[in-house]
What we know:
Blueprint: H1 2-11, H2 16-22, H3 27-35, H4 42-52, H5 56-60, H6 76-79, H7 81-93, H8 96-115
Helix pairs in contact: 1-3, 2-3
Amino acid sequence: MGNRVAELRVNLGLTQKEFAKKVNINDSVLSRIESGNRPIKDDEAITMARYFNVTTDYLLGNSNVKNTSVKKDDNLEEEFPEGLKMLRRANKELTEEGKKKMLEMAQLFIDSLEKK
């Protein structure tokens, strides 16, 4: 289960400290959860699952299905296929620092759109 939390966190380019702050737990608690040295409490699992948009079953390792709901407006495969290919490639090939920089650039772009 801790591996799933760490995997999801890393895929978003977040450090333990950053993610712990986002889900309102101590970063040392998150470290122990991810290393398997502390069980995750129900409320923590729910908060993390909501943050990652996955089921608690997926988070806890009881299922390999990340999310059972599909948003009707989420047509990224059709609307943004080249972008998704690029992101998948970057996810496989970039270092963690590179992924973090890419996310920062994307956020800057989004912020510039919102200012218009």
